[in-house]
Design brief:
Layout lengths: L2 E7 L1 H4 L2 H13 L3 E6 L2 H10 L6 E2 L2 E2 L3 H25 L4 E4 L7 E5 L11 E6 L1 H9 L3 E4 L2 E3 L5 E3 L2 H12 L4 E7 L18 E2 L1 H9 L7 H12 L5 E5 L12 E3 L2
Parallel strand pairs: 1-2, 1-11, 2-8, 5-8, 11-13, 12-14
Antiparallel strand pairs: 3-4, 6-7, 9-10, 13-14
Bound molecules: adenosine-5'-diphosphate and N-acetyl-L-glutamyl 5-phosphate.
Length: 258
């Protein structure tokens, strides 16, 4: 079975030009088949604020009304995706920018309203793994933004960590999949202010304990939910850490196991 690395890069790295450049150097040099998934939540919040639109997050997820959907489409599928693709081309990595609507690569449905109405937020139904596999086999590197669609013309905002997880699950029938969540910190920390408090190995039991202690918050909540979900669904390896973990196994980062 061929291997495919699915790398998610977070918004704090993307919005820092130097950090993004260093990350893309590492990503472009990564051996083997690979897919990039990017967020951009922070930039969307900044643009929304300039336009006088307030951003509301619940449990690390954005409440996406119609105006917010317009903003995130411009930021995620437009500026951020195209900039990353162009920068990968400059590094001789033949990137193909995609939202889930492109090639019907990711189908989703609007999240049903329960206690909270998330608006135009999408829950993923499935991945077009045949088409994504064809892209990979042609030598293309898919670059996904955090957007899906419902097949009836509605674009939906979908957490980028979830998109990376769904790609890892969907492709695990065809490839040995490895999922890397890259962000600005060394990994899961016991104290979010202290990079020396890294949790190198996290399993279900230690995760439950950290949750109970209130150590896991904000965007780390959906990230870790996704880690355990993919490990239950045949994905071989999941790591969370600084982009430098792509360069060397000697780097310290968090490895997640069941
Ligand atoms: N225990 C924790 N360890 C590391 N980061 C944490 C932790 N709890 C909360 N966080 C927060 O989660 C953020 C990462 O989630 P998010 O902002 O969604 O990441 P991304 O950069 O991938 O978009 C970190 O910037 C940090 O502020
Ligand atoms: C539904 C939902 O919350 N979507 C996310 C998608 C972007 C994202 O995931 O960006 P980061 O990886 O930079 O956080 C949002 O709009 O913030």
């Amino acid at each position: 079975m061929d291997k495919v690395s699915i790398v998610k890069i977070g918004g704090n790295v993307i919005e820092d030009e130097v950090a993004l450049g260093k990350f893309l150097d590492l990503f472009a040099s990564l051996d083997g088949l690979k897919i990039l998934v990017h967020g951009g939540g922070k930039m969307a919040t900044q643009l929304a604020s300039k336009l006088g639109i307030e951003s509301k997050m619940v449990g690390g997820r954005r409440i996406t009304d119609a105006e917010t959907l317009q903003v995130i489409t411009m930021v995620y599928a437009g500026l951020t995706n195209k900039n990353i693709v162009a920068q990968l081309q400059a590094r001789r990595c033949n990137a193909l920018g995609l939202s889930g609507a492109d090639g019907d690569t990711i189908q989703a449905h609007k999240r049903p309203v329960e206690s909270i109405d998330y608006g135009f937020a999408g829950d993923v139904d499935g991945i077009n793994s045949t088409l994504v596999t064809k892209f990979l086999e042609t030598g293309l590197t898919p670059v996904f933004c955090a957007m899906t669609h419902d097949g009836n013309g509605q674009l939906l905002n979908t957490n980028a960590d979830t998109i990376a997880a769904e790609l890892a699950i969907g492709l695990s029938n065809v490839f040995e999949t490895i999922l890397y969540y890259c962000f600005e910190k060394k990994g899961v920390l016991k104290n979010v202010e202290d990079d020396n408090s890294l949790v190198e190995h996290l399993n279900s039991a230690t995760y439950r304990q950290l949750l109970a202690d209130g150590v896991i918050a904000d965007g780390m909540l959906p990230k870790l939910e996704n880690c355990f979900r993919v490990l239950n669904k045949n994905v071989g390896k999941v790591c969370i850490g600084h982009p430098s973990m792509l360069a060397s196994e000697n780097e310290l980062f968090t490895t997640i196991t069941l």
